[in-house]
C-alpha cells in the first residue's frame, strides 16, 4: 500500500514538474525573448532600431538640399543621451565650422524639420548642429576617396589576415578597393580591403 502511494506521489510530482517547465516555456515564447551575442533582446528593440533609421533618412531627405557649399552634411544621428532625445546633425566645411555657423545653420535647418509630415518624432527632442571633429566618419565612397593620403580607422565585417580592424594611411582607393599602409608591431605592411567588407570607416588621430 505504501509502495503504491509512493509511486503515485512520484508520478504526481513528475507531472507537476513537467507542467512547470511547459508553463515557463510558454511564457518565454509569448514574450519572444531571444539571446543574441550574450545580450537579451526582443522584437521591440529591433523595431526601435528600424524607427530610428527611418527618422534619420527622413531628416536627411529634407536637410541635405538646404545645406549649401561651402558646408557639407557629414552625418545624422538620433538617439537618447541621458534622459533626452538628441537629433545631432554633423556639418563641416574646409576650414572647419564656427559657433556662428552652427547658429546660422540651426535657423535654416529647424524650420525644414517641421515640414516632415506626419511628424516622425515620437517625443520631444533637442536639435544639435555640430562638427564631426577630427575623427569624422567616412560613410560614402566619395568620402573615402577624399581621405586618400590621410590616417584612417577601418572596421570590417570579415577578417583579413586575421584582423577585423586596421588603422593606418590610406594610400589609394581604386576600383572599390582600399589600399592601406599600417604598422604590424615594428614592421610596415600594406593591405587591400574590398569596399564591400568595410563596416565602418573614419578619420583617425595618429598617436
Task: Write structural notes for this entry.
By secondary structure, the chain is α+β, with helices and mostly antiparallel strands. The protein has two domains: 45-130, 2-Layer Sandwich (GMP Synthetase, Chain A, domain 3); 141-203, SH3 type barrels, CATH 2.30.30. 34% of the residues lie in helices and 36% in strands. The protein is built from four helices and ten strands; from the N terminus they run H-E-E-H-E-E-H-E-H-E-E-E-E-E. It has helices spanning 2-31, 43-63, 99-113, 141-145; strands spanning 34-36, 39-41, 72-81, 84-92, 125-130, 151-160, 163-174, 177-184, 187-194, 198-203. Strands 9-8-7-6-10 form a five-stranded antiparallel β-sheet, with no helix packed on it. A three-stranded mixed β-sheet has the order 3-4-5. A hairpin with a 2-residue loop joins strand 7 and strand 8 (177-184). The longest helix is centred in the N-terminal third of the chain and has 30 residues, at 2-31. It is elongated. Residues 1-44 have low confidence and may be disordered.
Amino acid at each position: 500500500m505504501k509502495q503504491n502511494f509512493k509511486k503515485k506521489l512520484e508520478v504526481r510530482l513528475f507531472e507537476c514538474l513537467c507542467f512547470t517547465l511547459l508553463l515557463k516555456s510558454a511564457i518565454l515564447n509569448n514574450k519572444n525573448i531571444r539571446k543574441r551575442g550574450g545580450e537579451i533582446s526582443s522584437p521591440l528593440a529591433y523595431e526601435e532600431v528600424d524607427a530610428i533609421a527611418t527618422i534619420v533618412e527622413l531628416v536627411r531627405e529634407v536637410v541635405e538640399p538646404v545645406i549649401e557649399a561651402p558646408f557639407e552634411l557629414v552625418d545624422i544621428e538620433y538617439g537618447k543621451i541621458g534622459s533626452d532625445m538628441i537629433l545631432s546633425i554633423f556639418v563641416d566645411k574646409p576650414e572647419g565650422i564656427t559657433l556662428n555657423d552652427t547658429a546660422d545653420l540651426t535657423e535654416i535647418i529647424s524650420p525644414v524639420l517641421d515640414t516632415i509630415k506626419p511628424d516622425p518624432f515620437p517625443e520631444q527632442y533637442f536639435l544639435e548642429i555640430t562638427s564631426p571633429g577630427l575623427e569624422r566618419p567616412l560613410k560614402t565612397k566619395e568620402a573615402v576617396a577624399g581621405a586618400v593620403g590621410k590616417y584612417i580607422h577601418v572596421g570590417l565585417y570579415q577578417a583579413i589576415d586575421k584582423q577585423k580592424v586596421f588603422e593606418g594611411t590610406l594610400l589609394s582607393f581604386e576600383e572599390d578597393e582600399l589600399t592601406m599602409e599600417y604598422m604590424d608591431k615594428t614592421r610596415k605592411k600594406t593591405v587591400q580591403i574590398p569596399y564591400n567588407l568595410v563596416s565602418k570607416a573614419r578619420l583617425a588621430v595618429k598617436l
